[in-house]
């Protein structure tokens, strides 16, 4: 990215993580470029969720996971899905529960655990947040033609498979 695009809150060229530049190993430059893009978009999402909806990206993430599992998820399932600790998930679920956005019930298979799911109000709230999130992502990627997005998606799938193979 070289400058602002419509709907983008950047006011100038996006900075590369750790200064970036055209020198150094290509693999490190690729990593830093991806990190810069990800961090910039995430920062925009965080700010917009707070400014426009009075919520946070982690709360949206929990609600998104629960939306994918209408019958609910245990705290352990949520924490694994979101790659965060049980404690973080539990605190967010409690906040959402206090606002009537999430319901919990004991897990019939393990009484020490509980299952969380979106309430009707939570589903309505999530649908609103998800629509905004989708629009914001669309704005962030608007400078890339659909063909470029598809190519990037395929390259990232290749990278993901390579990383998974390396971890074995």
Overview of this protein structure:
This protein has 6 helices and 3 strands; from the N terminus they run ααβααββαα. It has about 170 residues and is mainly alpha-helical. Among the domains are: about 15-55, no CATH class; about 55-130, Winged helix-like DNA-binding domain superfamily/Winged helix DNA-binding domain (Arc Repressor Mutant, subunit A). Strands 1-3-2 form a 3-stranded antiparallel beta sheet. Strand 2 and strand 3 (about 110-120) form a beta hairpin. The longest helix has 28 residues, at about 25-55. The protein is globular and about 55 Å long. The two termini are about 35 Å apart.
CATH architecture of the domain at 55-130: Orthogonal Bundle
Largest sheet: 3 strands, antiparallel
In helices, the fraction of residues equals 55-70%
CATH superfamily of the domain at 55-130: Winged helix-like DNA-binding domain superfamily/Winged helix DNA-binding domain
Spatial gap, N to C terminus: 35 Å
CATH class of the domain at 55-130: Mainly Alpha
Rg, rounded, reads: 19 Å
**Mean pLDDT, rounded to whole units?**
88
The oligomeric state is single chain
């Amino acid at each position: 990215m070289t400058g602002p695009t419509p709907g983008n809150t950047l006011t100038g060229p996006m900075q590369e993580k750790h200064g970036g530049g055209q020198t150094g190993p290509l693999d490190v430059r690729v990593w830093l470029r991806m990190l810069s893009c990800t961090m910039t978009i995430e920062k925009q999402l965080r700010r917009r969720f707070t400014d426009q909806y009075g919520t946070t990206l982690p709360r949206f993430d929990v609600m998104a996971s629960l939306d994918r599992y209408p019958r609910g998820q245990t705290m352990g399932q949520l924490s694994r899905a979101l790659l965060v600790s049980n404690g973080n998930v539990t605190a967010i679920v409690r906040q959402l529960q206090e606002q009537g956005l999430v319901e919990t019930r004991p897990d019939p298979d393990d009484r020490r655990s509980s299952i969380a799911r979106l309430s009707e109000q939570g589903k309505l709230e999530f649908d609103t947040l998800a629509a905004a999130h989708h629009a914001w992502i669309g704005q962030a990627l608007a400078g890339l033609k659909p063909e470029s997005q598809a190519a990037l998606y395929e390259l990232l799938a290749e990278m993901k498979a390579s990383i998974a193979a390396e971890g074995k």
